[in-house]
Automatic annotation (TrEMBL):
Protein known as: Hypoxia up-regulated protein 1
Keywords: ATP-binding, Chaperone, Endoplasmic reticulum, Membrane, Nucleotide-binding, Signal, Transmembrane, Transmembrane helix
Keyword 4Fe-4S tagged: no
PROSITE patterns according to UniProt: HSP70_2 (PS00329), HSP70_3 (PS01036)
Start and end residues of each stretch annotated as Disordered: 609-738, 954-1043
Tree of life domain: Eukaryota
Bias (Basic and acidic residues): 656-671, 686-717, 994-1010
Length: 1043
């Protein structure tokens, strides 16, 4: 991960001497050594400054190290991922520091992974490995299982799945009325569990690619998924241990990807784009409007709004492949007609082969007019070969192509738009590559051409991972407002008694639309029941689904969602008999994933109380003032401001952000109250106003409003959302409102599809975790077996290599070869039942047996390099010692003891090297060597330590004071000194000593040396002027530097 600008490391200063950054192999001449040592004497001032700055530099480095460590620790959990769950394949994308929006490659280095799982008694396969197992074991290989999510046993899609894949045995779960896969008497898995396995596998791929653990994910789902299907996906992700940031519709993710990469083209003018997505299992047509809007926090930002959606649940590439498979099966049966052979449709393996060939054939026919279908050994060792033309394929799927324009018409109808308002139609999904699909669609939309300027396979994954980064707190992305749309309307139904005539009471059934069709979400709404004083029930159901056909309604399932039973309403009225009831408020939330939830139900009461301002203490007044400054004074009013009365049909625009849930609605039993305030509420509802156990939450009276508040506003809207008034207002109108909130008990009865109980969910998660651990153990065992087998083969091959034969005897090689052969035989005969520990022990025994042989070979390989490095170090150290002894006594910085010690180490190293090499030459190659590479390295380290000690001493040595010149004259100027330089020098008169020199002269020398040592000031004009003022003796020092 790259460092942030604030954590960049400081550039290193250039070394003061070339020898200070050298290794033990550094070579330098005696002249260079002497030059460096002389130059070091003139740098004491610079070194003193460096020593003064060293503590501060160390403190900065320590602080930077701490910050860098914190940043690296934080980066371990920064990555987020997205999973684009298609019917046939899935794409996984990640975002991590330094890797923005990248598609994850699977173990086969492919960007697309088949959504296939093979389940056996003792192993599992995923992706391409499972797809290859579909031919060998079709019953244990599960595909297209997402079509069973959230569906009960009597759903038409369950019957369709049985017809398409008869090899799978589907069991019946009486508790939830759903189905599960019966692999064997001991193995049975629900569709949610199978999906959980696949999500866990996708996370492992992402973690291997990102090289760090990942828990946060955004998962794509079809736009036509209802509440039961969305909850099923969330439960599967929970089993896999994933934290789902959002379930995003795949059409919305595609539109987001399109807008993100064309951000500059979006302006205030609305652009209507149609995305036609035909995948393997379904088709979705979406109309999206792009334009820039003004946001509350970020100013003008691009926005996408889903305007219309049309879909066909069964129109896709899979149905085309099934038609082709049936055609090929008929051709094969005709070829074998009269031979008394069985129908190929009764053989699951043969049908799996035909389906794979049909998939390939459909792809090839998209670019060719005809192709030869051929399968080797289709059934009973009989090969199959037949020619199929594109015309035959289009004839087989003629009724499917007639259904292509229907999603377009549905999308236009739901958006209340016509084709003239659509600027471009863009193709998405693999099945749109079929030429006939493009031909029919182009005719239906009436455009000149279809847009293909988007990656049809990866657009949804890229859009989803962008949304994941936006929702994650670890990344900061450019805002892009997303306003998704509700496909299926949701309403609330309740019944109450009314008195139509005096003494005659009857039941009246009421319906209130909670979330209307094509309304934006995420969104929160509140419904107020203001004529109930006892416990009652209400129902949450789907609204008008007339836009669905009869078959789609059967596939949709139950239209009733939940029955809500309230308990404690009567007790709350008894608890506050003197308070005025403001109704029973039910808070609903349609979150970012499109999942509806009932947050809470409250009974709200109000009353007017008189409170003298003198009773408030000074601390209370100060606390109220501070609270008002930070928005705390409006906490009790926040909820009521969020439940202002509006008309049922009005819905507030919900921004596509998790922080702006949208406008809330208060729907009363009778719509006689006019809308008092339609301004959007605050983004969140603090829990402080929900007072459990009768805790009181106060709110201010209307008289406490500031003067800017209009006096005509009445009711709740007039008293809510108002900051605390100043002290003068309190003295004038001491009466205030007091609000009491009582939590109401809620019992939910799920009617569409019961969720898994918590204990059942925990058991499923534990079962999947055990399977994952088993897979890891299996991988560890396979790794150990492969390591053992590879070691045997490699060692047997090495025994015949010349370098190994030179250092071993014939008996030693025969012993090793025999042990290797025995282990190989054991591995073939009994290795299948061996445990991981046994395999590792076998490998350790063989390595111990061959350790001596390998050691002798490795030592001989290291000798030339190590001995050459030792010789170079000895030669350079001898030259360094010779140069040190040539330094004049007046400038000598090394003591005789130090130079003698270095000379002793050099001589001892030479003697050890010569003696050890001679002794090694006498030993046979098959014996353990006495000349070891580690001993050579130890000698080199000892010698290098002595040399470095002397170099460090030279670096920090202070120059000795030079004797004064008796005649008072200065040295001659250098030959290359200019006339102006000579003219500037002042020769003191006879008898005047050096003490009469200006005091500032050494300071100029110091500044010049400092300037020379700073890399950013080299060659500056200041350096030239200071150089002119230096004494002649110092000029000669610079002359030595030039050498």
């Amino acid at each position: 991960m790259t460092l942030q600008p604030g954590l960049q490391t400081a550039p290193q200063k250039p070394a003061l001497c070339p020898l200070l950054n050298t290794t033990s192999q550094t070579a330098c001449s005696c002249e260079t050594l002497v030059s460096c040592l002389v130059r070091e004497q003139n740098r004491d001032t610079v070194e003193a400054m460096v020593r003064r700055q060293r503590p501060r530099r160390l403190a900065c480095l320590a602080l930077m190290a701490v910050l860098l460590a914190d940043l690296l620790a934080l980066s371990d959990t920064l990555a987020v991922m997205s999973v684009d769950l298609g019917s046939e394949s899935m794409k996984v994308a990640i975002v991590k520091p330094g890797v923005p929006m990248e598609i994850v490659l699977n173990k086969e280095s492919r960007r697309k992974t088949p959504v296939t799982v093979t389940l056996k008694e003792n192993e599992r396969f995923f992706g391409d490995s499972a797809a290859s197992m579909a031919i060998k074991n079709p019953k244990a290989t599960l595909r297209y299982f997402q079509h069973l999510l959230g569906k009960q046993e009597n759903n038409p899609h369950v019957a369709l799945y049985r017809a398409r894949f008869p090899e799978h045995e589907l069991g019946f779960d009486p508790q939830r009325q759903t189905v599960y896969f019966q692999i064997s008497p001991q193995l049975q898995f629900s569709p949610e569990e199978v999906l959980s396995m696949l999500l866990n596998y996708s996370r492992s791929l992402a973690e291997d690619f990102a090289e760090q653990p990942i828990k946060d994910a955004v998962i794509t789902v079809p736009a036509f998924f209802n509440q039961a299907e969305r909850r099923a996906v969330l439960q599967a992700a929970r089993m896999a241990g994933l934290k789902v940031l959002q379930l995003i519709n795949d059409n919305t993710a595609t539109a987001l990807s399109y807008g993100v990469f064309r951000r500059k083209d979006i302006n205030t003018t609305a652009q209507n784009i149609m995305f036609y997505d035909m995948g393997s299992g379904s088709t979705v047509c979406t109309i999206v409007t792009y334009q820039t809007v003004k946001t509350k926090d970020a100013g003008m930002q691009p926005q996408l709004q889903i305007r219309g959606v049309g879909f066909d649940r069964t129109l896709g590439g899979l149905e085309m492949e099934l038609r082709l498979r049936e055609h090929l099966a008929g051709l094969f049966n005709e070829q074998r007609k009269g031979q008394g052979a069985k129908d190929v449709r009764e053989n699951p393996r043969a049908m799996a082969k035909l389906l794979r060939e049909a998939n390939r054939l459909k792809t090839v026919l998209s670019a060719n007019a005809d192709h030869m279908a051929q399968i080797e050994g289709l059934m009973d060792d009989v090969d199959f070969k037949a020619k199929v033309t594109r015309a035959e394929f289009e004839e087989l799927c003629a009724d499917l192509f007639e259904r292509v324009p229907r999603p377009v018409q549905q999308a236009l109808q739901s958006a209340q738009m016509n084709l003239d308002e659509i600027e471009q139609v863009i193709l998405v999904g693999g099945a749109t590559r079929v030429p006939k699909v493009q031909e029919v669609l182009l005719k239906a939309v009436g455009k000149e051409e279809l847009g293909k300027n988007i990656n049809a396979d990866e657009a949804a994954a890229m859009g989803a991972v962008y949304q994941a980064a936006a929702l994650s707190k670890a990344f900061k992305v450019k805002p892009f407002v997303v306003r998704d749309a509700v496909i299926y309307p949701i309403l609330v139904e309740f019944t109450r008694e009314v008195e139509e005539e005096p003494g005659v009471r009857s039941l009246k059934h009421n319906k209130r639309v909670l979330f209307s069709r094509m309304g934006p979400y995420p969104q929160r709404k509140v419904i107020t029941f203001n004529r109930y004083s006892h416990d009652f029930n209400f129902h949450i159901n789907y609204g008008d689904l007339g836009f669905l056909g009869p078959e789609d309604l059967r596939v949709f399932g139950s239209q009733n969602l939940t029955t809500v039973k309230l308990k404690g309403v009567g007790e709350s009225f008894k608890k506050y008999p003197d308070y005025e009831s403001k109704g029973i408020k039910a808070h609903f939330n349609l979150d970012e994933s499109g999942v509806l939830s009932l947050d809470r139900v409250e009974s709200v009461f109000e009353t007017l109380v008189e409170d003298s301002p003198e009773e408030e203490s000074t601390l209370t007044k100060l606390g109220n003032t501070i609270s008002s400054l930070f928005g705390g004074g409006s906490t009790p009013d926040t909820k009521e401001n969020g439940t202002d009365t509006i008309q049922e049909e009005e819905e507030g625009p919900a921004e596509g952000s998790k922080d702006e849930p949208g406008e809330q609605a208060e729907l009363k039993e009778e719509a006689e109250a006019p809308a008092e305030d339609t301004s959007p509420p605050p983004p969140s509802e603090p829990k402080g106003d929900a007072a459990p156990e009768g805790e009181k939450a106060t709110e201010k009276d209307n008289g406490e409003k500031p003067e800017a508040q209009k006096p005509s506003e009445k009711g709740e809207a007039g008293s809510e959302g108002v900051p605390p008034a100043p002290e003068e207002g309190k003295k004038q109108k001491p009466a205030r409102k007091q609000k009491m909130v009582e939590e109401i008990g809620v019992e939910l009865v799920v009617l569409d599809l019961p969720d898994l109980p918590e204990d059942e969910l925990a058991r499923s998660a534990q079962k999947l975790q055990d399977l994952t651990l088993r897979d890891l153990e299996k991988q560890e065992r396979e790794k150990a077996a492969n390591s053992l087998e590879a070691f045997i083969f490699e060692t047997q091959d090495k025994l015949y290599q010349s370098e190994y034969q030179e250092v071993s005897t014939e008996e030693q090689r025969e012993d090793i070869s025999g042990r290797l052969s025995a282990t190989s035989t054991w591995l073939e005969d009994e290795g299948f039942g061996a445990t991981t520990v046994m395999l590792k022990e076998k490998l350790a025994e063989l390595k111990k047996l061959c350790q001596g042989l390998f050691f002798r070979v490795e030592e001989r390989k290291k000798w030339p390099e190590r001995l050459s490095a030792l010789d170079n170090l000895l030669n350079h150290s001898s030259m360094f010692l010779k140069g040190a002894r040539l330094i004049p006594e007046m400038d000598q910085i090394f003591t005789e003891v130090e130079m003698t010690t270095l000379e002793k180490v050099i001589n001892e190293t030479w003697a050890w090297k010569n003696a050890t090499v001679a002794e090694q030459a006498k030993l046979p190659a098959t014996e353990k060597p006495v000349l070891l590479s580690k001993d050579i390295e130890a000698k080199m380290m000892a010698l290098d330590r002595e040399v470095q000690y002397l170099l460090n001493k030279a670096k920090f040595a202070k120059p000795r004071p030079r004797p004064k010149d008796k005649n008072g004259t200065r040295a001659e100027p250098p030959l290359n000194a200019s006339a102006s330089d000579q003219g500037e020098k002042v020769i003191p008169p006879p008898g005047q000593t050096e003490d009469a020199k200006p005091v500032s002269e050494p300071e100029k020398e110091t500044r010049s040396e400092s300037a020379d040592s700073e890399p950013l000031e080299l060659g500056g004009p200041g350096a030239e002027s200071e150089q002119k003022e230096q004494p002649t003796g110092q000029k000669r020092t610079l002359k030595n530097d030039e050498l």
